[in-house]
Amino acid sequence: MKVKFSIAANAQGVTLGQYIDYQNAMDEVERVHIITGKSSESIKLFQLHVLNEVITKFEAALTLGSEGFRRKVRIGATELGFVPDLTELTFGEYVDIDSQCTALYKDGKLNGEAALKMMCILYRPIVAKFGEKYDIEKYDSIKVKKYIDAVRMLTLNDVHNVLLFFSSLEIELYNSSLEYLAKEITEIVTEATKQ
Fold this sequence. Notes:
Blueprint: H1 16-24, H2 28-36, H3 40-43, H4 48-62, E1 72-75, E2 78-82, H5 91-102, E3 105-106, E4 109-110, H6 112-122, E5 123-130, E6 133-136, H7 148-152, H8 156-194
Antiparallel strand pairs: 1-2, 2-5, 3-4, 5-6
Helix pairs in contact: 1-2, 1-6, 2-4, 5-6
């Protein structure tokens, strides 16, 4: 019996929701069902090495991303936008993002549930647009239920690119801090030697 199915080639082909379901799967049959969409009954007819190969290829695809941070993403009738100006985050948004960041990695792997909560803060429905500028819905942790399904449809690649953006920002801030401190120390030493 030949069964045809496809496996995502990279993180662009895997939705955040699919990744969460995969992480929450109870066994290999359920994992392969999530990967391929095939019924559990047909998957139980696969040989063990086929199950393992499907899972291995899928897990390899999870690590392969592509460049291309997307500020706006259309998912069905909903258009999501990344927070237009991170300097205007409210204290509540910042606290919620920070609490999710602490749970973002578990056993060296991305925690899908924490990533979903973080992405629901960073990507929200666009309520107004003018050219390339846009405004997103105000953050309310209660109203997230309204658009969480759209956020679950973001690709894992979108999540990786957001995390890359933040890690690059962290490195840039760290380097700027070091440069500033070196400059300040030099000025203090110069002033002290003049006296």
